[in-house]
């Protein structure tokens, strides 16, 4: 189902929404799959009980002044995998002001969500604020990959602010924010933060078994670490010279933590 995009003087407003539920036959149904303007949701072939959805960019953006929102709800017993068809590129627009990209994810008891979009690229002159809020139940299973690339090849980055919030059973276990690029607080490119790297990523995992057997804090690669969170969850943080090497590090981390 495709909705109507709202265009205002301050930019484009668009919201996409999907709901996954147990179909009662060992699979997952998608009773709600609403696309809107530049945010196109397309169901693809799943595997076993898991439903798969691709987020396809139907137009350029987000541009300056745009506000995109994606909402996903995975109901009890359902399994959902969401990816994207290509990288998202934040670009400067004719409208002044920052752009916003909000992601809202909710996963119920005994449900599972893998949220694995492609990279977000902060092009020169852009100004984007990304907020991802995740609400899980105690028995939810969850994987989120977040990758951000500062500037295209040979290009200075735009300003990029990113906030990630995780709540489990109503308790906040992670709330962190990073701002990079022109106008960001001093030191963002220094040795204590990115140390000159231009790709930064995170892998967030939540599993019920982590409550009994927490992940041990340790270094996973030269510029990647994993830390346990105050709940059945763990966070991998990594920086890298480029997107390709960042993906390789995060894939290896996911394989280690899934073993």
TrEMBL record:
HAMAP family: UreD. Its main location: cytoplasm. It comes from Streptomyces griseorubiginosus. This is Urease accessory protein UreD. It is found in: Cytoplasm. GO terms for molecular function: nickel cation binding. UreD, UreF and UreG form a complex that acts as a GTP-hydrolysis-dependent molecular chaperone, activating the urease apoprotein by helping to assemble the nickel containing metallocenter of UreC. The UreE protein probably delivers the nickel. Belongs to the UreD family.
């Amino acid at each position: 189902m495709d909705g109507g995009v709202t265009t205002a003087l301050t930019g484009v407003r668009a919201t996409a929404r999907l709901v996954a539920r147990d179909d009662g036959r060992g699979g997952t149904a998608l009773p709600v799959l609403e696309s809107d303007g530049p945010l196109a949701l397309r169901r693809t072939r799943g595997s076993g009980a898991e439903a798969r959805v691709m987020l396809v960019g139907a137009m350029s953006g987000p541009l300056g002044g745009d506000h995109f929102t994606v909402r996903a709800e995975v109901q009890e017993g359902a399994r959902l995998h969401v990816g994207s068809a290509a990288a998202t590129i934040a670009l400067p627009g004719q409208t002044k002001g920052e752009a916003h990209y909000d992601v809202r994810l909710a996963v119920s008891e005994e449900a599972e969500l893998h949220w694995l979009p492609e990279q977000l690229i902060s092009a020169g002159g852009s100004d984007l604020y990304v907020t991802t809020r995740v609400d899980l139940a105690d028995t939810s299973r969850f994987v989120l990959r977040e990758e951000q690339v500062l500037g295209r090849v040979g290009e200075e980055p735009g300003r990029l602010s990113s906030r990630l919030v995780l709540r489990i059973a109503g308790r906040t276990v992670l709330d962190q924010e990073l701002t990079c690029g022109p106008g960001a607080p001093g030191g963002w490119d220094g040795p204590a933060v990115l140390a000159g790297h231009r790709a930064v990523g995170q892998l967030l995992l939540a599993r019920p078994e982590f409550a009994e057997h927490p992940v041990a804090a340790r270094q996973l690669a030269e510029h990647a670490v994993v830390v346990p969170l105050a709940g059945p969850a763990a966070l991998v943080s990594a920086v890298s010279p480029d997107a390709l090497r960042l993906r390789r590090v995060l894939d290896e981390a996911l394989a280690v933590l899934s073993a």
